Amino acid sequence: MPPYTDRLHALRAQLAQDGLDGFVVPLTDEHMSEYVGGYAQRLAWLTGFQGSAGAAAVLAETAAMFTDGRYTLQVRQQVDAADWSYQPVPAVSIADWLAEHAPAGGRIGYDPWLHTSAWVREAGAALAGKGATLVAVTHNPIDAIWADRPQPSDARLTVQDDTVAGASSAEKRSAIADWLAEHSADAVVLTALDSIAWALNIRGADVAHTPVALAYAIVDADGTAQLFVAPDKVTDAVRQHLGNAVRVRDRADFATALGGYAGKLIAADPDRAVAAIFDRLSAGGATIMTARDPVVLAKALKNPAEIAGHRAASARDGAALTRFLRWCEAELPRGGQTELSAAAKLQELREATGVLLDTSFDTISATGAHGASPHYHVTEESNAPIEAGQLYLVDSGGQYADGTTDVTRVAPVGPPTAEMRDRFTRVLQGHIAIASAIFPPGTTGGQIDAFARRPLWEAGLDYAHGTGHGVGAYLSVHEGPQRIAQPNYPGGGPSEPLRAGMIISNEPGYYKAGEYGIRIENLVLVEPRTPPGGDAGMLGFETLTFAPIERSLIVPEMLSESEAAWLDAYHARVVAVLGPQLDPAEQAWLAAKCAPIR
């Protein structure tokens, strides 16, 4: 019997002991994080699912996994259909599924430290219609049966130097204080780990690939703050950096501290603060102002130091990736390489920079059919040989003190088919359409998402993920509020206007189930743009990522004159930026890969 089946049986036994008829298991932590520490990987432990977005619902006789279109194939490979049904998000919500399957009069448990208040209201209302009740648990039942559950990381905090951050923590806290004054509020609760890291100019190592620390913060209207973090994580250097205006308290004190704001107006983000935080504030007599975390937009608008740092990180990272692509061209056709060995080679080349601090996510090293899963995660069990006739897709990034990178390229192993070249060229055309877009202020990513899809739509094709996500400054590789996505795709919904200073990915793709995947991803910076002969005040994109785009996969005749000109100009820039970092042999190879397309 697979271990995951045993774990599901154990959870059902624990639920019966706790007087519950069901339980909901999200993939998040107490901070509503996308990427979570090992101690919070409850969904993966229970089901075997290794994706970065999903949830599960367990009842006495049935159980369901909820994933979006990015994981349609992956969830079926990793989660046993004998134990779980597969439910597509957003077509089916957890609340709707529970309303249909929960027993009348049933008690369905949830951990209030892992769900938003909005979710609690929605699920509670759906269950009430069935005569069932949503019950907040005081102890997560999975923790009771997870015998070898990891402890939270004890890694120490580090200081993000002001010269790289571009503004001091005092300046950032002063801006938050101004925001509080505008709203006549007394304090704001910061729960998002990257918001806390950015506001206080600190970094951590508590979550793989994301340099954040497990902490909470409360910033008061006078610009002072309380940082709730495990005491052993704070060094003398960090205390000196924080100064007297930031009081360091034990993370264990946070829940109690929320009860001390009677009569005060406290701001909290309903999308980033869990239900338990709102419950504690209300119970303590605070008046709650629901508002978006004021750090979110400020963090997204990169300052000159952050932009300069990203350019430096991108140039460094691009040279490592270019060396890797050259290696792929020479080594993959010879055979003997696997998805894991290729990922290890790319890691080796990034580490050779001497300044790599981490990868920015688990490298997506996918050959053949695995490339058709947009968020495929290679493991020892899934590791496949890279063979002739396949497309090898690598989506990866680095964490450097001056920037976070994210880039995707595709390498053919031997001559590609005509269909592969057609699909790749259409993806490239969509990529160019985004990269060269010019648009007025107020335009959202959702409004330009179709630019990337049109070449595919014209052939009756599409892809089931968003086209772009925000990226942090030595922070999370997935950062809001900006994105390029349709409302009905993962990451969709109401869009944020794109503003100068935002960094966002440009990554259209195409995926043929069982055969191959294609994605071309660069990061771009939103910047002011005045078209020749046009009015000032428009916006456009500066491409920040530099690495060759595979020529043998392009059908030159399909490109318009403007598309070919964009590609040639981009490749000329690749040579100019990366050439000085390469040796003569590498320079010659790059020059050939970046020669004019016609």
TrEMBL record:
Name this polypeptide is given: Aminopeptidase P family protein
Annotated CDD domains: APP (cd01085)
All copies of domain Creatinase N-terminal, residue ranges: 7-139
Keywords noted in UniProt: Aminopeptidase, Hydrolase, Metal-binding, Protease
InterPro entries from the UniProt entry: Creatin/AminoP/Spt16_N (IPR029149), Creatinase/aminopeptidase-like (IPR036005), Creatinase_N (IPR000587), Pept_M24 (IPR000994), Pept_M24B (IPR033740), Peptidase_M24_C (IPR032416), X-Pro_aminopeptidase_P (IPR050422)
Boundaries of every Peptidase M24 domain copy: 310-527
Residue ranges that the Swiss-Prot or TrEMBL entry lists as coiled coil: none
Annotated GO MF terms: aminopeptidase activity
Source species: Sphingomonas qilianensis
Family membership noted in the UniProt record: Belongs to the peptidase M24B family.
SUPFAM superfamilies, sorted: Creatinase/aminopeptidase (SSF55920), Creatinase/prolidase N-terminal domain (SSF53092)
Domain annotation Peptidase M24 C-terminal: ranges: 538-597
